[in-house]
Amino acid sequence: NSKGGGADLHHIRPEDTSVNSARNNNKFGDFDGGNEVKTSLGVPTGCYLKGGYFEPQDEAKGDTARILFYLFVRYTEADAYDFTDVAESLEMLLEWNRLDPVDEWEMERNDETAKIQGNRNPFIDHPEFADIIWGE
Predict the structure, then answer these.
(1) pLDDT, tens digit, for every residue of 49-88?
(2) Going along the chain, which residue ranges are E strands?
(3) What are the C-alpha distances in Å from 104 to residues 4, 35, 84, 108?
(4) How many CA within 13 A on the CB side of residue 51?
(5) Which helix (H) or strand (E) holds 20?
(6) CA-to-CA distance for 65 and 54, rounded, in angstroms?
(7) What are the φ/ψ torsions at residue 57 (nearest 5 degrees)?
């Protein structure tokens, strides 16, 4: 995909091919147990699969939520989707956003992406926007 969300640098993240393959089209979820995903070298990742859901590492959960929030407001094709099409629930994503605050790596990546692409992920600059827009 050379345009849209599939080519947006705010959406594309570096990942081990085995982890990316395990994630596949599974929805994001938060659960206990499951099968731990290993890298292509067999190293445990802290990511889990269970019943059609993929749980990222704790330190990537907020990043994941902010990427999804960005995609939902940036691309009109997202109008045909609901958060439950890609995740267990909107409430879970809002919680991930709160529990895993923006870190230096995520802010630097937003800065570098803006230099290349010309726009920022506002949910990294202002994570509170998610609660303003979708919170109760």
Answers:
(1) 999 999 999 999 999 999 999 999 999 887 888 999 999 9
(2) 27-28, 35-38, 44-50, 53-55
(3) 26, 30, 29, 6
(4) 8
(5) helix 17-23
(6) 13
(7) -55, 150
pTM of the predicted structure, to 2 decimals: 0.92
Q: Which helix (H) or strand (E) holds 74?
A: helix 58-74
Phi, psi angle pair for 112, to nearest 5° = -70, -40
- What sign has the CA pseudo-torsion 83, 123, 113, 116? positive
A 10 A CB-CB count for 44 gives: 9
- Give the orientation angle of helix 90-99 with respect to helix 58-74, to 10 degrees: 120
CA distance 35 to 29: 13
CA–CA distance, 27 with 88 (Å, rounded to integer): 7
Do 47 and 56 meet the contact criterion of CB atoms below 8 Å apart?
yes
